[in-house]
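Revision sheet: structure tokens.
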Amino acid sequence: MTISARELNRATLGRQLLLERHDLTVTDAVRRIVALQAQHAPSPYLALWNRIEGFEPADLDAAFSSRAVVKATLMRITLHAVAADDYQPFRSAVQPTLYGSGLSSRFTDTGLTLADARELAAELLVFAKETRTSAEVKEWLAERVGAERRDDAFRGVLVYAPLHHVPTGGPWSYGARPSFVTAGADPVQEGREVDVPALRQLILRYLAGFGPASVADVAQFGLVPRTPVRQVLRELAGEVEELPGPDGTVLYDLPGALRPDADVPTPVRLLPMWDSTLLAYADRSRMIPPELRKVVIRNNGDVLPTLLVDGYVAGVWRLVDDAVEVTAFRDLRPGQWEEVAQEAGALASLLAGRDPRTYSRYHHWWAKLPEGEVQAFRAGDA
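Predicted:
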């Protein structure tokens, strides 16, 4: 039976905890969601605020401090927050991509070789058994490769070596100047060979959190080649099922996984920058109307904070003078604006207590957005 586009949308919302807020611990919620984009420090917090009933930012602070949830370079060569026990299989699954990215021509053009990279990464894991700042790592590298090659070596080795980011304080646990610690006792993986068991685990976890999905969707999520994804899915024939998608594309899913009806009501949500639901698919029309894709995903890769109405991106939001300003690019009914007001007021309260300048460095995009209806909401509007 063909699954419709709206049913795919509802499946994503249900599995990503966006049909209702849930009574879950931070770690359990992160595990259910699979991975939270974390290249900008507030985003994991705001992602969980949208998903956990009574979310307290201090709970995520504690999870990061205890390393129950860890922040590291993973899927799409991007910082993600994941449950600690997911880190190693996810890292192994995407290691060929990290290897190719970190040790690209920019690295080798310095005259450093792949053998140099392996040696440096292995030594760095010893050096970073204790927390090291970026400045300390750069100084350490300069002693080994010279000051003129230090920065390129830094960029390459940080992607290649398995490191966790260490909380440095501030309103969102991580500041602009990162610190690092060795992720564990495992040695540095070499080469581009696919770790099939790890890729299998990543695919199953992805389908649980984001399915049904195509081969292209899975490959996009991990930024891994389609051929090994297709092969693993073929070998999982007894554990996954195939469904025809709206356009005839074969989709894969776990038997019995949540697939709400197409007409299930969906609440208004105010998603953070780079929310994973917007980036986890090759076909982003599952969440973003095609006419808004280039509006909310800018040409340099910035993904603006978005307004979801009826399960789809309908606008953007930003914090201005202690108010959450919402811009809708389509007409909303009065009842929908009332729901926006409740969500925006609650979000304003959260941000006022944490960081009144959240995402302010990205406000320059608003001058380039299409016209829409703009309303602002303060904490008292919740």
